[in-house]
Design goal:
Elements (H helix, E strand, L loop, with lengths): L1 E8 L2 E6 L3 H4 L5 E10 L6 H8 L6 E3 H13 L3 E11 L2 E10 L2 E6 L7 H9 L8 E3 L3 H16 L5 E8 L6 E8 L5 E6 L2 H4 L2 H5 L11 H17 L7 E2 L3 E4 L12 E5 L1 E2 L5 E8 L6 H8 L9 H17 L6 E9 L4 E9 L5 E8 L3 H10 L10 H12 L3 H4 L9 E8 L4 E8 L1
């Protein structure tokens, strides 16, 4: 039995294991394909990938055919790496493809209100194998999706172009790929909320003009939910409220698939339970006691947890550490929800790092007199525990060219570059200021 290993990646071809010259002479590298196996698939359907190879069990294939199949898999854009190994036994060949799927991101259909997402995904899947609403953010697949969308809309009488761009996900971590139609749009005539908290909020009603009366955009609604709707629920303790996605209600003749009139948007909301605060458990903290840290959180045991405050409070904890010289402190909060009791607690891991002391100030771009004024305004003594709050106070004065620093004398600079140069070994931090 002859065993040969080959691999292909985006950088080129890599020989995994060379077969000996004597073994190579014993085979022509041609045989009847007995088996094709795939390893490493996570999200993509096996049948889809098998079809993409172009190989059929029972065909007579050569090593060149197996290599061509690997090349085809790479060209789909669905994989960052494709490696393969084949074995020959008698007149038969079997091959194993080891695959590394490309990183995929969710797709957002921004302004295509005439179809549900499920309809769009099904239509695109007919020409983009394996498409399930997620896709590689780069490569040929996004263009293929855009072409499929344009063709679908053309079939329904719309001559449009479809653009796509990779953006930060406004409602979660990572990125998303937004598809946006140019050449056809509808305006939002009204918005209805599926829960009384939102429907009866005067503040929310006043913010509707950010999306109402504008061209319909899913991205605009996602930002509206993030900036206006979610805070309304989080501050009341509805920490796991489900908001959206927006549902479009087309106006006009229902027999006309692509109404160009205004549209009404319904926002489904499932508020869920009000979660009450049950405390935080701290680990890794030495410079600050649990009681001091709890005081920074501003939450009261047994009362509704204010999710909006909790979003910002971890920066407040980091700032308190920096106030005490711990400039490298890391705060890792992990929430724990008890649905049965409707409570929330946090496990917070603190990595304090070294405590820094002030070393020196290096100033460039100022006259001798102005430099002296800046140094006089800096009150932290050399060798003292560094306080980042005092550093930020000085920067605020410099940005305003404050008389508290320079008196009535005119100063001539447009901006101030600023850095903190830390040395974890010596636990010293220097202040660098560059006036331009």
């Amino acid at each position: 039995m002859l065993r040969t290993f080959l691999a292909v990646s985006l950088g080129g071809l890599l020989l995994l294991a060379a077969f000996s010259a004597s073994a190579a002479a014993q085979t022509s590298g041609k045989g009847k394909l007995a088996e094709v196996r795939l390893e490493g698939l996570k999200a993509l359907p096996q049948e889809t990938v098998l079809n993409a190879t172009g190989l059929q069990v029972g065909d007579i294939v050569t090593r060149e055919d197996l290599q061509a199949a690997a090349d085809r898999l790479l060209k789909t854009g669905l994989f960052s790496k494709v490696a393969y190994e084949f074995r020959s036994q008698g007149e038969s060949l079997s091959v194993v493809y080891r695959l590394e799927e490309a990183v995929r991101v969710p797709v957002l259909f921004d302004n295509i209100p005439w179809f549900a997402d499920s309809e769009l995904i099904a239509a695109i899947g007919k020409s983009v194998p394996g498409f399930d609403g997620n896709t590689p953010g780069e490569g040929p697949v996004p263009d293929q999706i855009g072409n499929a969308l344009a063709a679908l809309l053309k079939d329904h009488g719309l001559q449009v172009s479809v653009e796509h761009e990779l953006l930060a996900n406004p409602s979660g971590d990572g990125s998303l790929l937004r598809f946006h139609v140019q050449g056809a749009s509808v305006k939002v005539s009204g918005i209805e909320f599926g829960d009384a908290v939102a429907a009866q909020s005067p503040a929310l009603q006043q913010s509707l003009d950010t999306v109402a009366g504008k061209a319909y955009s899913r991205m605009a609604f996602e930002l509206f939910f993030l900036e206006h709707v979610r805070p309304l629920y989080w501050e009341k303790g509805y920490l796991r409220a489900q908001i959206g996605p927006p549902q479009v209600r087309l106006s006009g003749n229902p027999a006309q698939a692509f109404s160009t009139g205004d549209i009404a948007v319904f926002v489904p909301i499932q508020p869920g339970n009000v979660y009450r605060w049950s405390g935080a458990q701290w680990t890794g903290n030495q410079a600050l006691t649990p009681a001091e840290l709890d005081a920074l959180l501003g939450q009261v045991i047994g009362e509704a947890a204010n999710g909006q405050e909790l979003l910002a409070v971890w920066d407040k904890v980091s700032d308190e550490y920096a106030h005490r010289g711990y400039l490298d402190a890391k705060i890792d909060p992990q929430p724990s929800y008890d649905a049965a009791k409707s409570t929330v607690s946090y496990q917070v891991r603190v990595t304090e790092g070294p405590q820094y002391h002030y070393g020196e100030m290096v100033i460039t771009g100022l006259s001798i007199g102005d430099e002296k004024s800046v140094r006089d305004a800096w009150t932290l003594p050399q060798g003292g525990v560094f306080d980042r709050a005092k550093f930020e106070e000085l920067l605020a004065l410099l940005d305003k060219r404050s008389p508290e620093v320079f008196g009535k004398a005119p100063v001539h600079y447009e901006e101030v570059g600023h850095w903190l140069r830390t040395n974890p070994q010596t636990r010293v931090v220097d202040v660098l200021l560059d006036f331009k």
